[in-house]
Amino acid sequence: MNSPATAAAPSPNQRESRAVEREILTRVTNALEAAAKTASPDALAKAASDNQLLWSVFVRDLQSGQNHLPPELRKQLIEIGQTVIREISENINRSLDTDFLISINRAIIEGLSDN
């Protein structure tokens, strides 16, 4: 989450960072989808915890002074991340809205694509 989606062509390092972020988020999202389909409480708790950890890392990166995204985009992504983290924290042992979490992740994956 360290390169502007709306800026001119990203540098090779920015493209590489975005590709890594996209790959990790895709893996976490696929695990969340698989766990939701199996309805295994343990698998779902693990996948949700992994998703929460990843979003915690994203939020810390977005709050860093080293992050070069535009301030408004950073603010929006931080709010999304905090919402995801809160959803998991409040509902991991109850009725976790996996469809919501997956849709958020898929939207971010799409935004990280090199279109």
List the helices and strands and how they pair.
Blueprint: H1 12-38, H2 41-63, H3 71-91, H4 98-112
Can you walk me through this structure?
With 115 residues, this protein is mostly helical. The chain has one domain (12-112). The protein is built from four helices and no strands. Helix 1 (12-38) runs antiparallel to helix 2, helix 1 (12-38) runs antiparallel to helix 4 and helix 2 (41-63) runs antiparallel to helix 3. The radius of gyration is 14 Å and the shape is globular.
Short structural summary:
By secondary structure, the chain is an all-alpha fold. It contains 4 helices and no strands. It has one domain.
Q: What low-confidence regions span 5 or more consecutive residues with pLDDT below 50?
A: 3-8
Coarse structural class: mainly alpha
- Percent range of helical residues: over 70%
Number of domains: 1
| Biggest pleated-sheet summary | none
Question: Gap between N and C termini, in Å?
Answer: 16 Å
Radius of gyration: 14 Å
- Strand fraction band? under 5%
> Could you report the average pLDDT, rounded to the nearest whole number?
89
Shape: globular
User: What is the overall number of helices?
Assistant: 4
Q: Quick one: how many beta strands?
A: 0
Order of helices and strands: HHHH
